[in-house]
Amino acid sequence: DDNMFSNVFCENSKKLINVHLFALAAKYYSLSSLGVCTPLEDVLEALRGDNQGTTGIKTDEFMNNKKSHEVQVMSELVDNIANYCGIKQVIDIGSGKGYLSSFLSMQYNLKVYGIDSSNTNTNGAHERNRKLKKHWRAYQSRGRANLKSQRLEKANDKPVENEVKCKAIIEKPLNNDSSLQSQDQGTIQDLVSSCGFTEIATSETSKQTEVDLVARTQSDESKLSEEVLAILNVLPADAVEVFSSSQCNCGELCEEEKAQRKMASLKAKASKSSESNLYFPLTSCITAETELSDIITDLEDCMMVGLHTCGDLAANTLRIFTAKPEIKAVCSVGCCYHLLSEQFENQEECPEEAWGFPMCQYLKDEGWCCGRNARMSACLALERVAVGQMLPTESLFYRAVLQVIIEEIYGVTKSDRHVGKIFSKSSSFIDYVRKSLKKLELDDSELPDSCIMDYYEKYKHRMNELEAFNMLKVVLAPCIELLILLDRLCYLKEQDNIAWSGLVKLFDPVKSPRCYAVIALKKQSCF
Questions:
Q1: Could you tell me which residue ranges the Methyltransferase domain spans (predicted)?
Q2: Domain spans of the chain?
C-alpha cells in the first residue's frame, strides 16, 4: 500500500510525527527486507557445482577479527568465481596493505596484482607479504609434521611387507582451479540458471599437469618424502618441486616415461621459482579512464576485486569492468559513501565527468541527488548500534558545539579543511576546540577558555536531543545505502555485455558494516 507510511511526517510542516512508523518504513525499504539480494550460499553452490571448497590456513592467525572475517569470506568467493570463469589472474583495486591480495595468492594460488594509490600502502604491503610468507612456511612445516605423524600411526598398525613394490603416488594438487572439463556441463549450467546466472561463459580451462611422485622404500612403508607430503599441504601444490627418488631404478623406465617426468620436473621447478612472485603490489591512481595494460604488462583474462574501495573508486571499478574485454568478472565491496562525487549536488554541468553517483541512466534522467549529509548517514552502522555498540555521543556533541563556535565567532560556514579525529587526542573540550581551530588554521589567541566553556554549558542540556537525532540517522542509514547500491546494480543491468549481476551480503554486518558486494560476470561471447 502506497499510503502505508503516509503519516510518518506532518503534511503541512513536514516534521516527523510518528517515530515508530518511521522506523518501520526505514526497515521496509532496506536491502534485507526488499529481497533484492542473492544469498551467498546460492552463488557459491552455482559456481562450484559438485565441487567442494578448499580448506586451508585460517586468516585469524594473521589479522584482526574484522579483517580476518572479510578476507576469509571474500577470498573463497573470488576463488570460486575465478575457477568458474577459468582465469588465474586477479586485480585487487585499492588493495591497501594487501590483506586480501596476499591471501588470494598464497591460499588459492592466484596471480594477484594489488593496485593502491598510496606508496606507503604499497611498500607496507611488500613488507607485510614478506613476513606473512615466513608464517606461512611455519604452518606448512606444522602441516607436514602432523601428516607424517598420522602416516606413521597408520603404518605401525600394519605389518610391514617383506617386498615393497615401487608404487606411484598420484595426487591431484590442492587449491587447483576446478576445471570445468571435469564437471558435468549440463549439471553446472542448471545450477547456475537456478541462481539467475545466464549466458555465463564456461570456456575450457587448461588441464594442469598431474605429476607422478615416485618413492621406492626398502623396509618402512611409512617413510614418505617431504616433497610428497607438501602436495597435501595448504600451500599451492605447483609451488612444490617434483620429488625424484634416488632409489628408483630409472633404467627400468621407458624413454617416454623419462621424458614425461623430466617435463613435469621442469614445470614444477618453474612454478616453484615464481611462487614468491604471485602477488605484485603496485602504486597507481585508478580512474574510470585508467588503462590497466599500462600498469600491468602481462595483463590477461582476469577478474577485478575490491574490498572496501573508497568513494568513487568503487564506481570506477565497475566502469573499468564493463569497458575492458579482458576483465571477465568483478566483485566489489564499497565504503566511504560520504566521499562520493555527485553529479547533481552542486548543479554543475560537467557531462564528461565520471561521477560516483548516480551511475545508472534512470537516476541520471531523474537528476537524483543524495547530498553529503545523507551520504554521511549511509556510513553509519545500524546493526552495531542494535547490539549495544552505541554512537560516540560525546564526540558528536563536541563537534556540533565547535560548529557553532566557528560560525558565530569566526563567521565561517564552509571550509575545505577537516577537523578529523581530534576527540581521542584531546584531554577536555577546551583542548578539543583549540586543537581543532589550529587544524582549521583559525586564530584562537583572542578566544579565552571561559568563552569556550560558556558554549559548552549553553548546549550541554541538549545532548540527549543530539543523541536522539543521530539515532534517527542510524535507522535511516540502510535506506540510503540501498539507494547507492541499487544505483550500481542498475548500471550493470543496463550494460549489454553482462550475463549476470547481483548484490550479495558477504559479511556479518556487526563485524563489518559495509557488508554488501556488487558482483557481475560477462557473457560467454565476451570471453
A1: 66-343
A2: 31-139+276-379+473-522, 393-460
Q: What's at 413, amino acid-wise?
A: T
What SS3 state is found at 86? Answer: coil
Question: Cα dist. 389→189, 380, 442 in Å?
Answer: 44, 12, 34
Question: If you write DSSP's letter for every residue of 223-256 in order, what string do you get?
Answer: ---HHHHHHTSSS-GGGSPPPB-TTS-GGGS-HH
pLDDT digits (tens, 9 = 90+) for 161-215: 443 333 332 233 333 333 333 333 333 333 334 344 333 333 333 333 333 333 3
Separation in Å, CA 18 to CA 7, 14, 21: 7, 12, 5
Is the Cβ–Cβ distance between 300 and 327 less than 8 Å?
A: no
Q: Which H, E and C letters describe 17-66, residue by residue?
A: CCHHHHHHHHHHCCHHHHCCECCHHHHHHHHHCCCCCCCCCCHHHCCCHH
Q: Among residues 92, 79, 244, which one has the least CA distance to residue 174?
A: 79
Q: Where do the H-state alpha helices sit in 157-231?
A: 185-195, 226-231
Tell me, what DSSP letter sits at residue 339?
G
Q: Tell me which CATH code domain 31-139+276-379+473-522 carries.
A: 3.40.50.150
Structure confidence at residue 231 (pLDDT) = 28
Using CA atoms, how far residue 155 sits from 142, 148, 216, 227, in Å, is 20, 10, 15, 19
Contact at 8 Å (CB) between 401 and 456?
yes
The greatest distance separating any two alpha carbons of the chain, rounded to the nearest whole angstrom, comes to 97
**Strand-strand pairing, 327-335 and 279-283:** unpaired
CB 303 within 8 A of CB 328: yes
pLDDT tens figures, 133-161: 555 555 555 545 555 565 565 555 544 44
Q: Is 395 exposed, middle or buried (0-12, 13-18, 19+ CB in 10 A)?
A: middle
Per-residue pLDDT tens over the stretch 472-520: 999 999 999 999 999 999 999 999 999 999 999 999 999 999 999 999 9
